[in-house]
Amino acid sequence: MARRPDITVSQLGTFLHVIEEGSFTGAARRLGVSQSGVSHSIASLERLVGHDLIHKQSHPLQPTGPGEVVLASARRITFEIEQLHSSVEALHNTIDESLCIACIPSVSQGLLEPFINEFNRQFPQSIGLILEGVEEEVKDWVEGGIVDIGITTDTTIINHSYWHDNFSWIEIKDDEIHVAMPKGHPLEETQAVDIEKVPEHPLIMSSGGCEALVHHILSPVIEDETAFQVDFWVRNTATLLNMVEQNVGISLIPELALQKKPQTNVVLRRMNPPVHRTIIAFWPRRQGISRIGGIFTERLKAAHTTEIRD
């Protein structure tokens, strides 16, 4: 007895695309083939099944009863093949080294969580350790070799020669700074808060990555910089926002730090002129960067508008 030709994955994929696109033309465009090629593939599949699979007169095209049966199998098989491709890719991406990272809290919560999940999916077990700390801690951990890469607020402009001598870095993201105030605060009436107005009010600041930043932002508008001081330093952003809500003071908060921290009685205003901080990833200049570290930073570079700096 002659063996019947097998139904191919390609035929099932073509059928699935025809139904999803609702036309032979749409399926051909999506697959990058000719419409006649799609028609030939569907005709061959129908001969193998022994039934018409598509109501040819419907617009968009719809599956027949037998077509529904084949469609369910096509979807399942296509999904399993995609899973197989992902598994094979993971095998190719296996790297016998892990990466240790340190970052400031707002970066961990607002920037790294979704990125790390995707990176670990593509490179299983490649992230060995993630530490959270303030700016100085992150810098010290990188310099001391405790971690491979640090991710923090860019303060290289404050001591550029030191950074240039000791680190290489990559800019990841511009992060806008907002003024946070309680509802009913006098500054709420303005659409954007003039920078010179900020020192006129009690100031609460996060010590988790803003110490150098706040002085850099406010120094141009402070007459006596030596006499200026932040009224309250708070490490936890949620605590800071609670203090703002209770009218203890106002705060300058980066947008990343506000993610997943809704506050019903806190009002946010932009600064005038707008103020941003830059998030950077950095590593020791002399040691260079490992293979997995290079892949990690390149993926960050691809995910955001970045430029490697020396």
From TrEMBL:
- Keyword Transcription regulation in annotation: yes
| One Pfam family recorded for the sequence | HTH_1
Q: Is Transcription among this UniProt entry's keywords?
A: yes
InterPro entries xref list? LysR_HTH_N, LysR_subst-bd, WH-like_DNA-bd_sf, WH_DNA-bd_sf
One GO term describing the cellular component: protein-DNA complex
Instruction: List the Gene Ontology MF annotations in alphabetical order.
Output: DNA binding; DNA-binding transcription factor activity
Q: Which residues form the HTH lysR-type domain?
A: 7-64
Gene3D superfamilies the UniProt entry points to: Periplasmic binding protein-like II, Winged helix-like DNA-binding domain superfamily/Winged helix DNA-binding domain
List the keywords (alphabetical). DNA-binding, Transcription, Transcription regulation
Record's family? Answer: Belongs to the LysR transcriptional regulatory family.
Q: What is the name of the protein in this document?
A: DNA-binding transcriptional regulator, LysR family
